[in-house]
Amino acid sequence: MQTLQIKNNQSVPVSEIPGMDYGAFFDLNTGLVDRKSQRHCVNYFGIPDGGRILLFCCIADDDEQIIHLSSCRVNPTQKYASFTARLFCFEKFEREIHENFGINYSDHPWLKPVRYAFDRADKSQTIANYPFYSIDSEELHEVGVGPIHAGIIEPGHFRFICNGEQILHLEIQLGYQHRGIEKLYLKPQKLSQLATLAENITGDTVVGHSTAFAQVWESLCGFETTPNMDLSRIVALELERIAIHTGDLSAACTDIAYQLGSSVYGRLRTPIVNFMQEWCGNRLSKGLIRPGQDRFPFTQELADRLSSILDIFEPDFTEMNKQLFSLPSALSRFERTGVVSVADAASIGVVGMAARTSGVNRDIRSSHPTGLYNEIRHEAIVKHHGDVYSRVQLRKNEVIQSIGYLRRLIAGLPVKTENIGLKSPSSNMFALSLVEGWRGEICHCAITGTKGELIHYKIKDPSFHNWLALALSVRNNEISDFPICNKSFNLSYSGHDL
Fold first, then answer.
1. DSSP secondary structure string, 95-154?
2. Last residue of a domain, which of 65, 85, 114?
3. Does this model's pTM top 0.90?
4. What is the mean pLDDT of residues 169-190?
């Protein structure tokens, strides 16, 4: 049985996606996923289909730059063999399918709730009776952190099992706060309202998610972007990467009580986000990216302004890096802390920055490039030790790399072209878009009905893959190392819970 092979940002008729029985579907998709990480699952979800559930599996081949699509109809009252029992990277996807539709698996290791979504199949599964893992021992103790945290971050609960100060196990329980964003996409709304929803999937990845939505919608409408639109999107994506990475370096310094680094990196983030305010009127880039539009063209004046900002930013950033990465007390907290091995990273299917710091080369900018990323020919930066040091180093190196990309891009602005205008989305289509946000791989999938209306919208933030990596990273570390481990990933609660 063959899959339907598509490229990133391509839409296809739903009827062309091969359908098969569950046995063939199981063998095909578990066989496609490569244990060496050249092929991985970018999305796996279900939709109601007349009393049955229609499953769609999307496997990306990073070497061939294609995505394999296949589908299968299942009966929610029956039990099925789990993909997870063969490949653990499917565990979160299958837990969500179970939570949404009640589909049971005969050999899934633990069908715990994922989000506690309002429309979950089993309403008796609640936060109050979450099945935490526990060990019965007089020598061990449990430590609970959250769900309410100091500061303004969203709720999440961390349950540690410790032997003295040593962490033996961490379980991360999410699902406290939902906005029902995927369901909101199915309500009749203006296109501008749908774009605003994308900007609010997770507040620190406005450009990443709004670009993914724009590309899905444009694909459904058969719209080809102009060079000006491509430039605005890639500049915004790389600026978002610089701003967040710099802010995270500041936060990492805060967690190890290095006040100079905390202050300087925090200061350096400010002119980057302030430039976004000058460009589009919002420091987080809200309102900048819209399907079929170049609302705020990137002009020569903006290019000159950005160039001068980078000229001031870069030497100060370089000097602060020299200070931080030569400081023994800082290195002692970073090195060999919070390790995720290459084998674990590949097994659980981590993406983005978390993957690249554990030796897994996974970066949509090079594996499934679109727009001007085809011209840049991005080469991913990959580290191999999987520790906090690798994660802060990667941030430093990616900031420098992004600055180089921006200087190349703004040196030759494209000739301004007119927007053509969007048609209505085509009917009965399936569209998929992958974007490399600063945190990692973002995937948006859309399915339209007979009138071109959205009948399903599926969002995957990279945090969906990577929370388990954080839980694994703290094993055998002291509990006092948890804050720096946590910040070195900087995962999203809202991107997970939706």
1. HHHHHHH--EESS-S----SS--TT-S-TT--GGG--------SS-EEEEE-SS-SSSPP
2. 114
3. yes
4. 92
